[in-house]
Specification:
three-stranded antiparallel β-sheet; 1 helix; about 120 residues
Length: about 120
């Protein structure tokens, strides 16, 4: 099932979704944030041509610019669409069901712990 979930960041995993299994859907990151990432003048490593300084978008539909600071306040409410297994979803609400995830992954230390529900 395809759903929209929030994106999280930590130094070890980078930008991710707090679910055990998912496939991120391309070009679904929101909000798109124009500008905001200064790019210094540099040389194109493939052609050797000089590239003037400029400004790149902080976030486009496919993710965060690699030079963006993860703690930038404008990135606090990012979300994207993901495909998750149908059995993660409560059929009555259409939302992620932590109890279903715990049951499916009952031998996994992180996902079986009732005190650590997915942060989606």
């Amino acid at each position: 099932m395809r759903i929209r979930v929030k994106l999280l960041h930590d130094p070890e995993r980078g930008w991710h979704v707090d679910l055990p299994t998912y496939a991120m859907i391309p070009n679904t990151w929101l909000p798109k944030i124009a500008g905001g990432v200064p790019i210094p003048a540099h040389t194109n490593t493939q052609t050797g041509a000089p590239v003037p300084a400029g400004v790149a978008d902080l976030c486009d539909g496919n993710g965060i610019h690699h030079r963006a600071a993860p703690n930038d306040a404008r990135l606090a409410n990012l979300s994207c669409e993901v495909e998750v297994p149908d059995n993660y979803i409560d059929p009555d609400t259409g939302a992620i069901d932590p109890n279903r995830i715990r049951q499916i992954h009952k031998t996994h230390p992180r996902w079986a712990d009732p005190d650590q529900p997915p942060n989606v």
